[in-house]
Design goal:
The complex is a heterodimer of chains A (about 190) and B (about 230).
Chain A: E1 14-18, H1 25-33, E2 46-47, E3 50-51, H2 54-58, E4 61-64, H3 76-85, E5 89-90, H4 93-101, H5 118-130, E6 136-140, H6 148-164, E7 166-171, E8 182-185
Chain B: E1 2-3, H1 8-26, H2 28-48, H3 55-73, H4 76-83, H5 87-93, H6 96-125, H7 133-158, H8 164-192, H9 200-226
Helix pairs in contact in B: 1-6, 2-3, 2-6, 3-8, 4-7, 6-7, 6-9, 7-8, 7-9, 8-9
The chains are: A alpha/beta (about 190), B mainly alpha (about 230).
Chain lengths: ~190, ~230
């Protein structure tokens, strides 16, 4: 799918990945997140000259994508508790509720995720992705299903992430290109 | 936020706990296992009844019930993740080792629970007497562990396929055949009341099978899960 694709990113960068439907934006993000393995080539991450792999790499990467689903049969708090504990992060219930408050879901912690609207699920995905304050945040069609309030939260996330690490944003929308410091066009 | 250096075991426990919670709410695997076991058990008891008491036949029927029940339920552990599209999330947050061990323990508990129900039912409905109970317990325990070690890795392999159910049974049968033959012999000896020493060969084969299948599955899972 990709040939001769080679780029380096440093802390504080926002990269916008653009391209037509089927150009491989989602696949690229899934490879960068470690969900898919590239058939050829390598993705390398390093901090202070040390290459990161496996669980150490998992701890610094988060992804929000339409095809990344939460557990419908668990409550929002159960999802957050599981996703944090399995990565080695431990939060108290109050801390998790506070994080849900930031996206306007404070009173929905004990509701099953299956009962959430698609917009609420998208907001909860942001909470799960930001739990570990990732150095590398990957967003695939990040505005999908978000209302105005959700979009303003997303803009806050972008500002915070720029100060914390790297943000890679895949989109079809020409308006969203403006967020990026660099643009990677997969059509070319 | 507190960051703790969690081990595989503790992370496996979180995966296991998530699956248990999920199962208790959806009854995805448990219902399939239980329904199949009860239906086959009833059919077998009607067909054979309490008149035919050949230990060889009875032990074969017992493992047929366990084998086909596990075929209908144990694969769900990975298929459910694939069908509910949570597999990418799991890959993103959890290590391969913790996923495999968590799912393995979940299947183990599921099958032990099933056996807790079907063993007494089987003994009552078919009027079977276990003459060497200790040997029977060891054979069932080791047979269950071997069955779960093999089916968990096969479940991970077939989860991505289109015809999951058929493929699961087709792949499982040749891999489980040595195990099935051994547990049937072992159970037969327990029903006949043979000495523990007479069943030692079967137990040695079962222990070896469990070790080989457990280690092999653990090592193979990395390739199956990430490719």
């Amino acid at each position: 799918m990709f040939e001769g694709l080679n780029f380096k990113l440093r802390e504080g960068t926002i990269l916008t990945v653009v391209g037509k439907n089927g150009s491989g934006k989602t696949t690229l993000l899934r490879i960068l997140a470690g969900i898919l393995s590239p058939s050829k080539g390598k993705v390398l991450y390093s901090t202070n000259g040390e290459n990161l792999k496996g669980e150490r790499l998992q701890k610094i990467i988060s992804l929000v994508a339409p095809d990344l689903c939460l557990y419908d049969e668990l409550t929002a708090l159960e999802n957050l508790r599981f996703l944090s504990k399995v990565q080695g992060f431990h939060f108290t219930q109050e801390e998790l509720v506070k994080k849900m408050e930031q996206v306007g879901l404070a009173n929905r912690g004990f509701d099953l995720v299956g009962s959430f609207s698609s917009g609420m699920k998208q907001r909860l995905k942001y909470v799960t992705a930001l739990l570990k304050e990732p150095l590398m945040l990957l967003l695939d069609e990040p505005k999908a299903n978000l209302d105005e309030e959700g979009v303003s939260f997303l803009e806050e996330v972008i500002r915070d992430q720029k100060g914390r690490g790297i943000l890679i944003w895949a989109t079809n929308s020409s308006e969203e290109r403006e967020y990026g410091d660099q643009i990677l066009n997969l059509d070319k | 936020m507190e960051i703790r250096s969690s081990t595989w075991i503790s992370k496996s426990f979180w995966v296991f706990q998530k699956d248990i919670k999920s199962e208790l709410r959806t009854r995805y695997g448990l219902n399939a296992l239980l329904m199949f076991a009860v239906v086959t058990l009833t059919a077998v008891s009607f067909a054979v009844g309490q008149f035919f008491s050949s230990p060889k036949l009875i032990s074969s029927l017992f493992w047929i019930v366990v084998f086909f029940s596990s075929m209908s339920g144990l694969a769900q552990v990975f298929i459910k993740e694939e069908e509910s599209k949570t597999v990418s999330l799991l890959k993103l947050v959890a290590s391969n080792e913790s996923i495999f061990l968590g799912k393995l323990f979940f299947n183990l508990i599921l099958l032990f629970l099933l056996e807790l129900i079907i063993v007494p039912l089987f003994l009552i409905l078919l009027g079977v007497q276990i003459k060497n109970f200790g040997l029977f317990v060891f054979v069932v325990l080791l047979g269950t562990v071997g069955l779960v070690c093999a089916t968990t890795i096969i479940a991970a392999i077939v989860a991505k396929a289109h015809v999951k159910g058929a493929l699961f049974a087709v792949l499982s049968f040749p891999i489980l055949l040595p195990l099935l033959i051994t547990v049937i012999y072992g159970t037969n000896l327990a029903f006949e009341g043979s000495e523990f020493s007479q069943g030692w060969n079967e137990l040695k084969v079962l222990i070896s099978y469990c070790v080989v299948m457990g280690v092999g599955s653990f090592l193979l899972f990395d390739f199956v899960w990430r490719e």
